[in-house]
Amino acid sequence: MAKEVDSIHLLSCAIEASLGNDFPAFAFRLPGEDGFYWGACEPDRLMTLADGVFPERQEGFFFAPFEEGELPRYFFPVKIQRAEEISLEALNYGAGQTLANLEIKPVDSSFEQYEKQVNTLVAAMSRKEIKKAVLSRTVTLNRPVVSDGQLFFRLAAKYDSAFVSWVNVPGIGRWIGATPETLLDCDGVSLTTMALAGTRKAGAKEPWGQKEQEEQQIVTDYISKVFRDKGLEPIIGERFSRKAGQVEHLCTPISLKVGSANGRLAEILSVLHPTPAVGGYPKELAMEWIRRVEPHERRYYGGYLGPMFGEHVRLFVNLRCMEVDDSRLRLYVGGGLTDKSDPESEWKETEAKAQTLLSIINGYK
């Protein structure tokens, strides 16, 4: 217990040092683990990567936006430390120019606006223009008197099966989240991912509805096709209900045969992301509709992030996340639509997903 308290104290101090001295940094807790990890670098060492480039077999942390080309893709080329290994004396970065982060301004949709957005997308599906689209919205709040570190640790304590993260990129902003979705886990021998879609209240006893099953099957079929089109034969696991805070999702694990993905991560990521779990299907048409209908930019919501331990790469979809500044919090939540979607039900689904973060935030009010 003393070691855990000490690591939390060290990591809290490191997070505050990053904010006070304005240097790039990240912290995370892996699903099902107890320990925390940290990394930081001088501002001029933070790498901005071209679209389609992925730094395989390196150590560091990757942070990518929802849409390539809209915002930078970042790689922190640093040694990832366990929290108890942090040396606060070594955190002397940030001596250069301070970059102002973007101020968070409300762009939230009312229910009436959201209803129109849903109806527009459902009409496109009824005309067979697209089969599925994920519609997101934002919830902007005045920030309670609480530190980034407190929010991060509260999320980690409450959601032990999530990838919990905090990322600070000067000039871009800070992001905190607790995502249930793995995009890619490759250890140099095998690769696994998941088709995660369909949402309902956690612990429901009745069978899953047709809409949710169809929505999730679209994701499974898409990922399987992406792999097969690249000459990779996927192994499809059994579908199950995966709890994520106040809700649960349908989840199908998908893996590749041993060694078949070696040296091909950049290629696989370029076609895999965004899956229909965060974008839609067909991908390009659904993305066009999302750009047309959503009133906000997704930025790094729905993008992906995660650690790279040399051969072992673990990337997660940036869901159940919020963008933060010193005065406001902007939560991002979304839901998959099909031609069977009802605006009121979809709104309630996003409210339930928002509780992943609101249940933590409201504890400080």
TrEMBL record:
Designated name of the protein: Isochorismate synthase
Sequence ranges assigned to domain Chorismate-utilising enzyme C-terminal in this UniProt record: 111-353
Pfam families named among the record's database cross-references: Chorismate_bind
SUPFAM superfamilies given in the database record: ADC synthase
InterPro entries linked to this entry: ADC_synthase (IPR005801), Chorismate_C (IPR015890)
